[in-house]
Amino acid sequence: MSLVKSVRDSGLKRRRFLVGAGVAAGAGALARQLPLNVIEPARAEQEVPGAPVPTEIKRTICSHCSVGCSVDAVVANGVWVRQEAAFDSPINMGAHCAKGASVREHAFGEHRLRYPMKLVNGKYQRISWDQAINEIGDKLIELRQNAGPDALMLIGSSKHNNEQSYLLRKWAAFWGSNNCDHQARICHSTTVAGVAQTFGYGAMTNSFNDLHHSKAVLFIGSNPAEAHPISMLHFLHAKELGAKMIVIDPRFTRTARFAHHYVRVRPGTDIPLVWGILWHIFQNGWEDKEFIANRTYGMEDVRKEVAKWTPDKVSDVTGVPEATVRIAAEMLATNRPSSVVWCMGITQHHVGTANVRALSILQLALGNIGKPGGGANIYRGHDNVQGATDVGPNGDSLPGYYGIAEGAWKHFAAVWGVDYEWIKSRFGSKELMEKPGITVSRWFDAVNEKPEYVDQPSNLRAVFYWGHAPNSQTRLPDMKAAMQKLDMLVVIDPYPSMTASMHGRTDGVYLLPAASQFETSGSCTASNRSIQWRERVIMPLFECKTDHEIMYLFAKKLGFHNELCKNIKVVLNEPVIEDVLREINRSCWTIGYTGCSPERLKLHMENKHTFNPTTMRADDGPCKGDYYGLPWPCWGTPEMKHPGTPILYDTNKSVAEGGLPFRANWGVEHDGESLLAADGSATKDSQLDTGYPEFDHVFLKKLGWWAELTPAEQAMAEGKNWKTDLSGGIIRVVIAHGCAPFGNARARCNVWNFPDPIPVHREPLATPRRDLVATYPTYDDKANFWRLPTLYKSVQAVDYSKEFPLIMTSGRLVEYEGGGEETRSNPWLAELQQNMFIELNPRDAAQIGALTGEYVWVETPTGARLKMMAMVTERVPIGLVWMPFHFGGWWMGEDLERHYPEGAAPTVRGEACNTGWTYGYDTVTMMQETKVSLCRVLRA
Length: 940
Ligand code: SF4
What we know:
Elements: H1 3-9, H2 11-21, H3 26-31, E1 55-61, E2 70-76, E3 79-85, H4 103-108, E4 117-120, E5 123-126, H5 129-147, E6 152-155, H6 162-175, E7 180-181, H7 184-187, H8 189-198, E8 216-220, H9 224-227, H10 229-240, E9 244-248, E10 261-263, H11 270-283, H12 289-295, E11 296-297, H13 299-307, H14 311-318, H15 322-334, E12 338-342, H16 344-347, H17 352-365, E13 376-378, H18 385-391, H19 406-416, H20 420-426, H21 430-433, H22 445-448, E14 462-466, H23 476-485, E15 488-493, H24 499-502, E16 509-513, E17 522-525, E18 531-534, H25 547-558, H26 561-564, E19 570-571, E20 574-575, H27 577-587, H28 598-606, E21 669-670, E22 673-674, H29 697-703, H30 711-717, H31 729-736, E23 747-748, E24 782-785, E25 788-790, H32 793-796, E26 806-811, H33 827-832, E27 837-840, H34 842-848, E28 855-859, E29 865-872, E30 880-884, E31 889-891, E32 894-895, E33 910-911, E34 933-939
Helix pairs in contact: 1-2, 5-25, 6-18, 6-25, 6-27, 8-17, 11-13, 11-14, 11-15, 11-17
């Protein structure tokens, strides 16, 4: 038996092999072709040489991307002295990328905020926490009296752990506004909307590890070799085992260099390309007919749209030759199960939700959903962007995607133990209580816009930037203008973020030092839905406070701390994290955040080595039968011991063992057609062998299962459904009968309540192909969308292509993360990438005589002028330029260092490409457009 075969057959054997080989340098090392045996396995249990006291290991999780790599932090006498790669994690198996390998520096960084500060006459001055909380709190109270609670915008963080994210959403509710949001708006809100409306849940279906089972993987608008390096490790193992690799991207990325088949596409034409692939699939009968017939709705409507995309048309619109499209289709169809991985190249468009749906439909047509090695795999950006989306500050939803209608508020009023009428009284009105709030992508428009066009009583007048980088948003000159108009700007962050330097104000700005995630404990949800528990590594440094303590202190000042923590113990002003998670466990039945008690999560972290790195299942040991991190939904109460759901919509397992059908979320029929799954396509062991709706007390009684609830459960479940029954009895009984609490339905290819029920091509708002605008126009302008007027046609109507002939697009680097203040302050990472740059094709560079390393000006239709270095490379085609988005700290050629608090400016500063980005928002979620616009480049 070959080594590869024996490795494939035994996850544990395979891991021992990896440990022996010391794969500790991650995909970064793999990408550089380092031999795999250059690094010794860590011996974390040994004492630190010369350490005066014995060391202990604290288990934590890398706080950068969403892969969820474990880090062993070596602590001596309360000091974090060293970090080790965690070989026992089934996710990273000892590997770290450059960012993860240096997270200790994130906590100890010299550039951190150390104490609260206030801007006085243009200079930041040190103040006490008492002064900060009192002054800010007084201002908030005044604002509330003068303008109402909706004058405040809370921009939360996708780096908050689940408990902090949940508490911030609760805080916003008790303050009385839905104006709360976080990074997911601008990275994967379109994914969440697209996949939730197609399959039922807004999350990645499989796991990084599950790629081991894939026969082919399509990466589209995704560059994991840089953005999610350790996920590449799993894919590279799949490739060793024979998986085919297709990469679709306008730029030849570091990921593309591994591809068997590379497809260079014109930005903003993903739907025609996906329909072009599907055209070949339908033409050759490669679709999964049985799957389509039994488990999908509306595929016939898709066929009609796809039929329009003949190879010549696809080629004209996308720039991809016919043969290239056909090869991609054939590779996917003949190497099944095939998986699709996407990221911001797909989501950050004014048609982002439609892009996501096109890819979801492709996977449905191939029958790849609910299968090991298949799936719609969506790699998220920050460590807890999935969890913050699931339970955190979203302006259109309460935790667990309950929405903001009256029933949802009443559910949470019951969980929180507070009166619904009291919560309502905190809002400007019931109407505002049930109206989606302002989004992070547009908050500045809610400041700058004429009051009569903002659909709330007042413009925004105060903003909290709570662990979020402003340079990850577009249209920064408009944002700067808004910052100057605000009554107050509050930044809460371990590092100051570019907010601290870009506002151009002389007063009314506060910087509050937050503790990092290594200075608290709590759970975070990796992109694959696994929930991992972080131990506190060190106590907060300097005068930093944990985010939940800061939330509590503000609530105390504002008078709602008792309601905020009614069921949560508070110790020294810190709400106890375990108690917060228990409240999440008691409330979020919709997505099964109910079985993942702190005790179960801690047990998983202590026994990581018992989980198989391919299946993610513990085949033995104290977690036997569980999947690693209890990937949600983890149904029922913790006592029910549901193992988690490793692959969404997998009908080959019983629900009790982690199986699921598609969710019945849209009724039982539409236009006379059944939306429920066909007979015979229920999950394994289901006592209902056909499609069925979601469960409530009436359905349970009709089936004769009601008597199986205990009397206490019956009392609580009467009049309730599976989502609102706080006893959990409905879910318990339904699963005992082998059924899914949310029903058994068809995936929707036709989402009739969306602007485009079947995704159609719409030319980018800033397009160089003016000849295509009439045939593929964008949407009509909207007078009121997420409380603001939103433009489409009037933006597209202006032709900038002659003055600005280059298509511009953006992406990530392996060295930095997000807005980059932490990583650009990290000396090890800063050394690797010292300058902001723009990639230019040699022919475009020759036109202006620019050489690599020389400064150029990048000018965009907004009037922005950005100064950065040229990098001349054939990675980008003629006519297209690419920039990384992590830089900040410059403003149109000026270094802002003197505007940061002393010593807090990041080591590497550069122009933020988003300063120049143009207008554009997804028509469902308000996702910003960052992947297609126009610019010109001049020598500086
Ligand atoms: S940045 Fe992502 S891939 Fe790199 S170590 Fe951290 S979690 Fe893992």
